[in-house]
Design a protein that fits this description.
By secondary structure, the chain is α/β, with parallel strands linked by helices. α5 packs across α9. The chain is globular. It has one domain: Rossmann fold (3-Layer(aba) Sandwich), CATH 3.40.50.300. A 5-stranded parallel β-sheet has the order 2-3-1-4-5. It is built from 10 helices and 5 strands; from the N terminus they run βαβααααβαβαααβα. Helices cover about 60% and strands about 15% of the residues.
């Protein structure tokens, strides 16, 4: 299978750009946030990091200090990777776009074992991410709850640490990235992403 992988921090535009690429080139898109939720729903105590998200309230989970949340975030994706690889290997699609924060740079060699891949990581500044987060319904609900403000603050700081981690990792593994512009020009970002992924060659 040929895979176009789009990774990066939450709220960096992965879902929007992946959807547009899929529509333009008639390629199936897998939004891995949905896969993450399935893994959480099916988790047991044998998957301790995933299971926390199943068994605890989101606000409670986000009361830890950001660095600890970041470490748990990465470990959660490490627990999910074997299930994700099995699901991809079972797929009968010839070409697919995968987008999600789970696509850590250190996982890329695992995808290469059985598939032809192109990959790009999206980056965007913290202030723009914060603006996007506050548009989300669940964030507005959290803000109305006790300890909600602290949870959101820790979430944003965790994602900033995650972004720094990804940036360091893509340099380590010599992987491409795209810095998303903040003026709302999605078509400009889309064209740049097409070039990095070489996706126009397969339309």
């Amino acid at each position: 299978m040929k895979l176009f992988l789009i990774g990066g921090r939450p709220c960096s535009g992965k879902t929007t750009l992946a959807r547009k690429l899929g529509e333009k080139y008639h390629i199936g898109v897998n939004h891995l946030d949905e896969f993450t939720q399935e893994c959480i729903n099916n988790s047991t105590a044998n998957n301790p990091n995933l299971y926390k998200w199943k068994s605890m309230n989101l606000i409670e989970l986000l009361q830890k200090e950001p660095h600890e949340l970041f470490c748990e975030y990465v470990r959660t994706y490490e627990e999910m990777l074997p299930s994700l690889l099995r699901a991809i290997n079972k797929s009968k699609m010839n070409v697919s776009i995968l987008e999600g924060s789970i696509l850590l740079p250190k996982f890329i060699d695992d995808f290469k074992k059985n598939h032809e891949i192109r990959v790009c990581y999206l980056f965007i500044d913290d202030d723009f991410v914060k603006e996007r987060y506050f548009r989300r319904d669940y964030v507005q609900v959290m803000l109305g709850e006790a300890n909600g403000n602290n949870a959101i603050r820790n979430l944003l700081e965790r994602d900033s640490l995650f972004s720094e981690y990804i940036n360091n990792e893509i340099e380590k593994y010599a992987l491409p990235k795209l810095v998303i512009n903040t003026n709302g020009d999605i078509e400009f970002d889309l064209k740049n992403l097409e070039v990095i992924l070489g996706i126009g060659e397969h339309s």
